[in-house]
């Protein structure tokens, strides 16, 4: 007998029968009803067992949707969301001595491992031995009323880091985790990422002469640490990051063999990284994938075709895209981005709306049916916008600034306001020659007691320092 028909018949039968047998496990406990005339009695009605039906899968061609060309209309009105921020620019994260500056490693690093000029090292290791670096906030995450801040202490390519918990109510910050390299072979990737109430981080090292890679997860509330990935292989390098929906993703590259890139996605229920190839995926070449509400969606390039198809548990949509990514997808709405335009599929109205967002940034998040977009570059000042997709109405929700890391969470959307900070590292002394030119140099006494002066340059790099953390919630 058909299973669906059987379940329907069983549910109907149960609903029409008054059950007096107390041995059935599916029944609720009897609830007594008192009446002066009838006395006390108990009655139990068994409920129909819950059934979970698979969603109806539908296939759509391009012609099934009505194409609607839209333009964004910026309105100077109060946005339909509540925006708040906290200022963390004044927090003190202390100092740390990174591994390359530690007394036991400084001479080896600056003499043997750094750049050379005319056969001589450019940096005098004695100037760096024991030198501490001030911490700088690199990433932030709002979770259960607290702001978690990932702070780096960077010198050249080495960076120690710490995780701080900032209580937004009391204004107190405390260090809850710290990572330091054990030796010059260990390096932590700055692309640590926050996801699902955890911090994911990766670091490399060596087992003898074999390179190693490790990924760990730290629970933000308990501080519990768990290893999620380990590899010891000269062929493997990894890249840990968050995808467009804010989920942790790991890409495993093979440098020597001809094996293709392996993609792992963090599975919250399993608390592990799952290979994308182990997920039930459609036929064709997967060009992009993401997970929203526990449902995976894929942009697939079918064999022998140019145009992508969007596929998930609900539908297969033939699209005009030949490049792009998934911004959002659920049972009623799908948003794709091809680096210039948004393609919005309304599955209730059967409309395909096209919006040109080339000037509005590339970072996007969807929350409560609204699209939040911004951040064209780290040097371009602009607002973050709230867009009503079906109308094209657009609200600037903050003043012009440098904002990044636009991310949807269970409670809303978060993003950071940043400023550019320049870290300058110098070695040696400054002198001016007969032509008025300024030189930085240091002197070294050789084995014959002669003093030699060597040119040395300064090292500097810029990075984004987080000043404010914004939270957007619906009104």
In short:
The protein has 2 helices and 41 strands.
Model description:
There is one protein chain. The protein contains two helices and 41 strands. It has 475 residues and is mainly β. The strands form eleven sheets. Strands 3-27-26-25-24 form a five-stranded mixed β-sheet, with no helix packed on it. Strands 4-31-30-29-28 form a five-stranded mixed β-sheet, with no helix packed on it. The protein has a five-stranded mixed β-sheet with strand order 5-35-34-33-32, with no helix packed on it. A hairpin with a 4-residue loop joins strand 34 and strand 35. The N terminus is likely disordered.
Radius of gyration: 29 Å
Main beta-sheet annotation: 5 strands, mixed
Q: Tell how many strands the DSSP assignment holds.
A: 41
> What gap, in angstroms, lies between the N and C termini?
51 Å
- Helix fraction by DSSP (H/I, runs of at least 4): under 10%
Mean pLDDT: 81
Uncertain residue ranges: 1-46
| Class based on secondary structure composition and strand pairing | mainly beta
SS strand fraction? over 45%
Q: In what order do the strands lie side by side in the largest sheet?
A: 3-27-26-25-24
What's the number of helices?
Answer: 2
* Bulk shape: globular
